[in-house]
Write a structure and sequence with these properties.
- The chain has a 6-stranded mixed sheet with strand order 6-9-10-3-11-12. It has a 4-stranded antiparallel sheet with strand order 2-1-4-5, with no helix packed on it.
- It has helices at residues 2-6, 13-45, 50-97, 102-107, 110-152, 154-201, 203-208, 212-237, 240-265, 270-312, 373-378, 403-408, 424-428, 437-446, 450-453, 473-485, 503-516, 529-532, 552-558, 560-570; strands at residues 332-339, 350-357, 362-367, 388-393, 396-397, 410-413, 422-423, 463-464, 491-495, 521-525, 537-542, 545-550.
- It starts with a helix and ends in a 13-residue tail after the last helix.
- It is an alpha/beta fold.
- The protein contains 20 helices and 12 strands.
Amino acid sequence: MLKTLLKQVKEYKLASILTPICMLDEVVCEMVIPVLMGLIVDKGIYGNDMGYIYSSGLRMIFVALCGLAFGIGGGFFGAKASAGFAKNLRWAMYDNIQTFSFSNIDKFSPSSLVTRLTTDVTNIQNAYMMLLRMGVRGPMSMVVAMVMSFVLSPRIASIYLTAVIILGIILFFIMRSANSYFRSVFTKYDALNESVEENVTAIRVVKAYVREDYEISKFQKAAANIYLMFVQAELRIDFTAPVMMGTVYTCILLISWIGAHMIVGGTLTTGALMSLLTYCMNILMSLMMLSMIIVMITMSEASAERIAAVINEKSDLTNPANPVTAVPDGSIRFEGVDFAYNRASQTPVLKDINLDIHSGEMIGIIGATGSAKSSLVNLISRLYDVTAGSVKVGGIDVRDYDMTALRDNVSVVLQKNVLFTGTIYDNLRWGDPDATDEECQHAAQLACASEFIERFPDGYNTEITQGGTNVSGGQKQRLCIARALLKKPKILILDDSTSAVDTATDAKIHEAFKNEIPDTTKLIISQRISSICDCDRVLVLDDGRISGFDSPEKLLETNAIYSEIYKSQTEAGAGDADFDEKK
């Protein structure tokens, strides 16, 4: 874990080295000042030597200014190193997330990834800053102060040593008790972020169903869980303050009592006692710093593990050693395919799928909800790998292709249509970054999107808000289809992507497909008979198995499931509602 994280220090190694060096120099300066103060008392004040007082005072000012300069340097380099480290951690996670397959993304929920990229990285940044500064300053200050105390008076210094040992033991048990709470709190952060993400994304549905109070209650519950976790952890940590203060005041009283007797006995000077009292505060404050570092490390340990898990996660989909980079045609062949999202599952989602689709065919796919229609088409562009068997595109196993080359030739319009912030042109050019305005407009015409785009005051330069909330569901679907067409794919997959489009427009889009892209293989998943009745062949899925695969006319005669769907949607009064699978 540490090795994974420290690799991300990269170009900030120099700043990470200079920070503790500056801290060490600052500590040296701070440790010299008490000695000079003691000498001023013993030689200057008691010796009535004003010249010595002035010269020592100037030396103290010089040493203090040096300490200030080193402190500023440590702060600057520490901030640069910790902020840069955090930047690299975020980049490393985000970069690796882009390589994840769908199954990798399923392993980490979106809300958890957001927490790791924000809260967890901030915890690591703060811990790294504290380690570079206090992590060096605290122990070094304590060690030097302890050494100087033993030089001045071993008898009094033994009081410090005893206090440090006792405090160390107490702090160990306090931190150990708080650790379990800090390790649990970040899973609660995931739940909180999930609640916020879900509510903000679906705010229109929340308001339409007047569920604001329910969502507020759900958020308050998630926030209360985090609050309770932190309260339990902080209650334990709060014990450190009274323990520290009690120890400090006890040490001061003992030093003053014993030191006074030693001064009277002539074995200790007044200046030396002043220096010892200053070192006492340095030692105990250094111990306080160490306790803060332990708290921060305890809090950030869970964050470090979560960040390392994302950085070290390897995509379960990788390119072969010598990948094929050219897709010959749009033919598709499934040979004995089984598929399960969880490879350990005893019940696959798809079972014994054998299909042979010719290049340029228009294939309809229909089946009850949960019959694995989307799972089937996701295997074509290798968004998932088959559990058994093989999927071939252009006569070549999809696992032998370079994934970028394969996906560039397979356009998928998913069930959940997503548009991004920017103009309509910007969104269309996701299909082809180099597409001209004319090519974008032609793709929009094929998708029947030009008719509403041209009604906008700014036309194709109309700004799309985040998530495409300023266009309707049907308009969003048509823009996504146009975007897919711009890739000029060999295979086009529409996963229930015209469900919000009226049947007349749906028919126009299919007609455009036939006339404009005859060599492209078209796979159309739909719940509407009207969307697939003009396809060359229709695939009927039932509980992950092929129930029928033939022309619409023949299926009407031979397949009970297709026949029932057809009748339910074409009889008088029937709509395009969802249906139950044939029992």
